[in-house]
Amino acid sequence: MYSAKTMDHFSNPRNVGIMEDPTVLVKVGDPDCGDALLLFLKIEEDRVRDIKYKIFGCGAAIATSSIASELAMGKTLEEVLQITEQDIANALDGLPAEKMHCSNLAAGAFRAAINEYRKVRAS
Ligand code: FES
């Protein structure tokens, strides 16, 4: 039911870990299933230079966080904001319908982190 790519990212998640000196750190959760994602971003010159995360969730949440970190790495903040849940699922060659919501975690975390970064900079 999972694609080979999803299984690969689940078994060997990319960029997982913690960052000592992130520019921004957010935690987002899915209230329905209780899964959560802690996301660390290093931002320089309006670009995502490094990404680390800790995921407390299902296999699809692990795989979507991993592929989302690859999609966002090196991109401008505007480009990262354009990454949708569907883009994340497509990059994994699709997700089972009942697991589509798991891709919300990573997409939502990137949006929350960039919004937080901009809020702090504006204040
Ligand atoms: Fe919670 Fe997948 S079931 S993120």
Number of domains: 1
Roughly how many Å is the radius of gyration?
13 Å
Major sheet: size, sense and barrel closure?
Answer: 3 strands, antiparallel
> Given the structure, what is the number of helices?
5
CATH class: Alpha Beta
- Describe the strand arrangement of the main beta sheet, using strand numbers: 1-2-3
The appropriate CATH architecture is Alpha-Beta Complex
The hetero molecules present are:
FE2/S2 (inorganic) cluster
Q: Mean pLDDT, nearest integer?
A: 97
- The tally of strands reads 3
The fraction of residues in strands falls at 15-25%
Overall shape: it is: globular
Sequence of secondary-structure elements:
HEEEHHHH
Residue share in helices? 40-55%
Structural class by helix and strand composition? alpha+beta
The low-confidence parts are none
Structural description of this entry:
- Helix 2 (59-72) packs across helix 5.
- The protein has one domain: Alpha-Beta Complex (Sufe protein. Chain: A).
- The chain has helices spanning 4-11, 59-72, 77-81, 85-91, 103-122, and strands at 24-29, 36-44, 47-56.
- Helix content is 44%, strand content 20%.
- By secondary structure, the chain is of the alpha+beta class.
- The mean pLDDT is 97.
- The N and C termini lie far apart (47 Å).
- It contains five helices and three strands.
- The protein has a three-stranded antiparallel beta sheet, covered by helices on one side.
- Residues 30, 33, 35, 57-58, 60-61, 102, 105 line the site of FE2/S2 (inorganic) cluster (FES).
- Residues 30, 33, 35, 57-58, 60-61, 102, 105 line the site of FE2/S2 (inorganic) cluster.
